[in-house]
Structure to design on (358 residues):
């Protein structure tokens, strides 16, 4: 492919404005934004204004057919992801798909099937797995896999708005017709019911949290220590806002904790314990760019002391690393590590956890 990859974006809300557009502008030698789509005319016009000649669409079906688009970034609500991805694949466009890939396994399977019959590639936007500190932790954990005695996955954060409203000034939609908003809610609830058998209440809220926040953690856990054999238990409290679970890995157990409180913070980490070392990865909020992901190693220092080493190999944002990987995968025709099939495992875990909560 000569020149930058030309990107069309479906969904121009928070993650597009705060994260993806700045990353694409930073990587302007590799990417050019040529088309935008949103159901809000005001958001579309405002987000598109700085991009000379950008094509603006209210309907994703027109964007994916646009000949100026080589690849599609999918950032609209989760229950619409599969429609856009399948249409983009059929139009011969590569896709970077925001997590969660979908709400139901049937949607995931439809995308996997469409991709398998095409010459294009879908990369899932699990940016935490592209952070260099995490990649280094994966290499360390691989060397001690048989010695692991305990693991932990922890994600307790404040409401996104407490960070976004303080650090960004984004265009928000005030002009989406009520019927479009109602249809989005109906579609999400319908798909949650298809996935776990209920469309409201605490368990449905817990499933939505598993897909939205915890898909990141589940995905990173799988790359770090593999797919668990089974969910030992899973429980939700506070109307589905706090989740606890344990995964059976045979010779060790991995504890899982997730929740949304009212403190403007972001406490997300993974830990792997062996009898002689603790390997830990800490993430910060994605809504403030270039906050480094950190790797910490804790071990004995002589007979009486302890060594604690924290490092980050780069300050560059993990979304930029994700886009660089996307560029390599498109131009070198390689498969991403975050494929649709890989991400489907997180939907299976979310489904199994929701079932244990029943
Ligand atoms: N990787 C991450 O850390 C991360 C962070 C935030 C969000 N996300 C994911 O990105 C996606 C978008 O999240 P967001 O926070 O930007 O949401 P948002 O609500 O801020 O933005 C979504 C945008 O899509 C538009 N939209 C709604 N329906 C549409 C349709 N049918 N076609 C085109 N546009 C439509 C809305 O008008 C809105 O502008 C979600 O899947 C979310 O899970 C990922």
């Amino acid at each position: 492919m000569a020149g930058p990859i030309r990107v069309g974006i479906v969904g121009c809300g928070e993650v597009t404005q705060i994260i993806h557009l700045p990353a694409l502008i930073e990587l302007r030698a590799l990417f050019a934004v040529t088309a935008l789509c949103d159901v809000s005319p005001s958001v579309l016009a405002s987000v598109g204004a700085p991009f000379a000649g950008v094509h603006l669409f209210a309907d994703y079906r027109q964007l994916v057919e646009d000949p100026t688009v080589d690849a599609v970034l999918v950032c609209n609500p989760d229950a619409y992801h599969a429609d856009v991805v399948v249409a983009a694949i059929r139009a011969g466009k590569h896709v970077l798909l925001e997590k969660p890939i979908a709400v139901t396994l049937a949607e995931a399977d439809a995308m996997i099937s469409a991709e398998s019959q095409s010459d294009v590639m879908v990369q899932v936007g699990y940016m935490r797995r592209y952070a260099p500190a995490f990649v280094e932790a994966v290499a360390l954990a691989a060397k001690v896999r048989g010695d692991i005695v305990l693991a932990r996955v922890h994600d307790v954060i404040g409401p996104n708005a407490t960070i976004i409203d303080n650090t960004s000034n984004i265009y928000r939609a005030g002009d989406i017709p009520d019927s479009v908003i109602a249809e989005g809610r109906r579609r999400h609830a319908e798909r949650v019911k298809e996935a776990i058998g209920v469309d409201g209440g605490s368990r449905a809220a817990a499933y939505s949290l598993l897909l939205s926040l915890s898909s990141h953690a589940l995905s990173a856990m799988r790359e770090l220590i593999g797919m668990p054999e089974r969910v030992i238990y899973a429980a939700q409290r506070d109307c589905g806002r706090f989740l606890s679970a344990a995964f059976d890995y045979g010779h060790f157990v991995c504890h899982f904790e997730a929740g949304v409180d009212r403190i403007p913070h972001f406490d997300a980490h993974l830990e792997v314990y062996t009898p002689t070392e603790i390997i830990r990865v800490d993430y910060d909020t994605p809504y403030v760019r270039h906050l480094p992901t950190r790797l910490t190693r804790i071990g004995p220092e002589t007979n009486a002391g302890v060594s604690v080493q924290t490092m980050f190999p780069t300050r560059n944002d993990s979304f930029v690393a994700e886009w660089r990987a996307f560029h390599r995968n498109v131009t070198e025709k390689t498969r991403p590590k975050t494929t649709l099939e890989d991400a489907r495992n997180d939907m299976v875990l979310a489904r199994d956890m929701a079932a244990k909560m029943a």
